[in-house]
Amino acid sequence: KRACGEPRDLRQPAGLSTPWMPWALGAVSAALIGWIWSSAPLPLVADEAAYLFQAENFASGRWSSPAPPLPEFFEQMHVLTSPTFASKYPPGHSLLLVPGMWLGLPPLIPLLLTGVAGALVFLLARRVANPAVGLLSWLLWTTAPGNLVYRPTFFSEVSSSALWLLGWWALLQWRDTSRRGWLLVLSASTAWGLLTRPYTILFFLVPVGIVVIRWVVAKRVWGDFARALALGALLLGIVPLWSAKTTGDWRDLPVLRYNHTTLPSDGLGFDREADPGGRPLPEDQAQVRENYARLTRAHRLRSIPQILGIRLMVIGADMWEGTRLFLFAFAAVGLLSLPREGYFALASAFLMVLGH
Predict the structure, then answer these.
(1) pLDDT reported for residue 277
(2) Closest CA to 232 of 168, 199, 185
């Protein structure tokens, strides 16, 4: 086939097709974010501090710390002070941060995850299009304004984005090779994503799950499917253990306990009556709670088009802001020639946005 010659392949620089190129580009992605972050590698937002605090618990071999004797002096957004001292957030992201905590380098894992995500962006685009498209996709992704803002942080999106990119890669590999290992990788990455940002990964899982079930039926690999389900269930078994060790009841999720006692406006649904109440908080944290209540009051069914439009505009600015705006026209034209895998990824991403 190569002897016959394919013009599209012949035009590609040879280095872009080498096995080491994804590693090199991933390293550049991590180095760029590391350079941006080097001026202040500290948690600047309450969510980041909560994730790091929980990572410290895990790094010390604990699910939570003992409740402080004077909880009011240890109040922190998104952190339980009773019955134990722990973050409310699901444990997936904080568990991944543990090696960095052991080494005294908390930013290490977010930087490595950025490298993994960068490598996968290139790999996926190279796989479904060609090496040149892969390189351009990686370049636009790595330098996207939104990426440069949220990646030098301890936010859990750094983990979840790497996990869903890994899931897409494993799905493609399993489709083409039928190797059980790739189905297990898909299961593990999805399960860990649910341990990290469950609502986001739930919407990621819907189209992936439909495709997997169709292929399982077509390939008749029920045994492999059962093993993948068992692996996912095993990993998700961390949730009741985490709850039992944090709230004392395996059915009482820390995030639900915290929201019930401290942040009652933070919940799912539309047209809810915002409740800014809850236990007493310091003035600055009470203001944050009021902001949540304000957002809840504005979250109405009739406002869905407006909310979705604003979020899509913000997402667009994260990618095409400033001098990059002219590239949007090329991206729009490129949508007309996407392979089916590209449309699948685009639809999956839109479903995650729509779900939120």
Answers:
(1) 67
(2) 185
Side by side, which strands form the sheet with 84-87? 65-66, 84-87, 79-80
Q: What is the pTM of this model?
A: 0.91
Whether residue 87 contacts residue 78, with contact meaning beta carbons closer than 8 Å, is answered with: yes
d(CA 164, CA 171): 10
Q: If DSSP codes are grouped into helix, strand and coil, which group holds residue 80? A: strand
Q: Which residue has the tokens 């449309």?
A: 343
Residues in the chain: 356
User: Quick check: 75 and 106 in contact, CB under 8 A?
Assistant: no
Distances (CA, A) of 121 to 11, 25, 131, 192, 248: 21, 10, 11, 19, 41
Distance between CA atoms of 324 and 116, rounded to whole angstroms?
A: 25
Least Cα distance to 142 among 51, 286, 33 occurs for 33
Q: Mind listing the pLDDT tens digit for each residue in 69-118?
A: 888 888 899 999 989 999 999 999 999 999 999 999 999 999 999 999 99
Q: What is the mean pLDDT of the chain?
A: 91
